[in-house]
């Protein structure tokens, strides 16, 4: 929404008391904005502290979710909720590094349960696998946008995920069918135009 000069001037004319009332009214309606301002203004925890806590949170919740892995639909619902918590962390902290590392951690921890996943019918895990493939694509795109100094820190995750995909026949086949090349699982081997590659694949009806 564009704000006119007149509207901005009218807001500026509010007294300090009126501005405070307006701010608190807006914060009550927008919990995410409230958390973001708290973090930026007075939170003693740093972005690294928040990321470390989120890493523990992801690991713990995947461990708890694993007992529902036989119900792939419900398991995916839990995974989406964990992913939403990662997204909230990113919006609050603007943690660009964590946007990649936390999502790769999520994928890696899910694939720790390869044996349980592999025993299920492909139809049951298809949506989960496609969800993971989309997340991997998006993570690769984000890596290419970050400074190269960070790349090495993602490679352990990428290698681990690559190995686990290679041990999962149906997931590996689905990656190939949806244009995800397992040779890209090293930061300096990700194509420069990975975002365009993903768009082209989606335009052909894949990754859906």
Report on the architecture of this protein.
- The protein is elongated.
- It has 208 residues and is mostly helical.
- 23% of the residues are buried.
- The mean pLDDT is 95.
- It contains eleven helices and no strands.
- Helix 4 runs parallel beside helix 6, helix 6 packs antiparallel against helix 8 and helix 8 crosses helix 10.
- Helix content is 74%, strand content 0%.
- What value does the average pLDDT take? 95
Shape: elongated
Radius of gyration: 21 Å
Number of strands: 0
How do the SSEs run, as a string of H and E?
HHHHHHHHHHH
Helix content: over 70%
**Which class do the helix and strand fractions yield?**
mainly alpha
Major beta sheet summary: none
**N-end to C-end Cα span:** 31 Å
Task: Note the beta-strand portion.
Answer: under 5%
Poorly predicted ranges: none
Query: Number of helical runs?
Result: 11
Please render the helix and strand layout as text:
Elements: H1 5-12, H2 16-29, H3 31-41, H4 47-65, H5 72-93, H6 96-110, H7 114-118, H8 122-145, H9 151-166, H10 169-177, H11 194-203
Helix pairs in contact: 3-5, 4-5, 4-6, 5-6, 5-8, 6-8, 6-9, 8-10
């Amino acid at each position: 929404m564009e704000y006119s000069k007149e509207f901005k001037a009218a807001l500026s004319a509010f007294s300090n008391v009126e501005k405070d009332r307006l701010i608190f009214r807006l914060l009550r309606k927008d919990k995410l904005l409230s958390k973001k301002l708290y973090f930026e203004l007075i939170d003693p925890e740093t972005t690294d502290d928040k990321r470390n806590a989120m890493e523990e949170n992801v690991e713990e919740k995947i461990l708890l979710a694993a007992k529902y892995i036989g119900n792939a639909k419900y398991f995916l619902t839990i995974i989406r909720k964990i992913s939403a918590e990662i997204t909230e962390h990113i919006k609050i902290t603007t943690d660009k590094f964590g946007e990649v590392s936390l999502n790769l951690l999520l994928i890696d921890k899910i694939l720790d349960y390869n044996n349980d996943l592999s025993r299920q019918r492909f139809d049951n895990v298809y949506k989960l696998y496609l969800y993971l493939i989309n997340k991997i694509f998006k993570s690769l795109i984000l890596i290419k946008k970050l400074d190269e100094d960070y790349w090495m820190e993602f490679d352990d995750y990428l290698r681990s995920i690559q190995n686990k995909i290679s041990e999962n026949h149906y997931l590996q086949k689905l990656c190939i069918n949806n244009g995800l090349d397992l040779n890209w699982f090293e930061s300096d081997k990700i194509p420069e135009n990975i975002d365009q590659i993903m768009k082209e694949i989606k335009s052909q009806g894949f990754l859906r």
